[in-house]
Specification:
single chain, about 230 residues, mainly beta, six-stranded antiparallel sheet, four-stranded antiparallel sheet, 1 helix, about 40% strand
Length: about 230
């Protein structure tokens, strides 16, 4: 190899090294940024909720949608992301809750919330079907188990507080409270196509109540002989 070829190889080597360094720099910088500022879960919080009368904030984000059989609507849970300690909406590790549900009609892209505010803990939902024996049948309504206020004085709204039951149409509209805040909701069962049975406890009393699956109206209720 003559002197000219050796010089040419050295120049090519230097150019290759420079290109390699500049090519790796963006990757290194991205890695450093990721370590310093890791991305938030769920593509980041969509809503910042603030407890009334305080400076405490809770970050909320939407979860994945669920189709509602029989109508052109999906629902998306609004989950708590993080909160400052002491907030009425505190979300400590293992203590996150669903604060609301967003409903979207995919036929015209209209949307609405199940509740007007984000200061509740929605613990369970029970879909009511047009046919009680068909889990894939049309949804005609939903029962929601909800903690609405801090009743045990721990400055949080969780399943440890009193639980109310709400009825709504399948699309989440016209939600009404059908069981006022109680110690526990013991069971929620659709017993016929048109009737729903809820058993709940308030103090030492346990009550069974029948409701219409069409509009949530109470049909009858009766205390259960648990204590003698």
């Amino acid at each position: 190899m003559n002197k000219f070829d050796r010089i040419l190889w050295r120049i090519n080597g230097v150019l290759f090294l420079v290109l390699l360094i500049f090519g790796l720099l963006p990757l290194v910088w991205s890695f450093v940024e990721f370590r310093i500022h890791p991305p938030l879960r769920g593509n980041g919080p969509a809503i910042v909720n603030q407890a009334q009368g305080t400076l405490e904030k809770e970050f909320l984000h939407l979860g994945p949608p669920t189709r509602i059989n029989g109508i052109s609507v999906v629902r998306m849970p609004l989950h708590s992301e993080a909160a400052s300690k002491g907030s009425s909406f505190s979300s400590h590790s293992g203590d996150a809750h669903t604060r609301n549900y967003l409903f979207v009609d995919h036929s015209d892209l209209s949307s609405w919330w199940l509740f007007e505010t984000f200061d509740r803990a929605i613990l369970k939902e029970h879909d009511l079907r047009a046919d009680v024996d068909g889990k894939d049948k049309r949804v005609i309504g939903t029962i929601w188990e909800v903690a609405t206020t801090d009743t045990n004085g721990d400055h949080r709204i969780t399943e440890e507080d009193h639980i109310a039951a709400f009825f709504s149409a399948a699309d989440g509209k016209k939600s009404i409270e059908i069981i006022p805040p109680s110690d526990r909701i013991l069971s929620v069962d659709q017993v016929t196509n048109n009737q729903l049975l809820i058993v709940y406890q308030r103090g030492a009393a346990v009550t069974a109540a029948l409701f219409s699956t069409q509009d949530g109206s109470k049909i009858k209720e009766s205390p259960l002989p648990i204590n003698k």
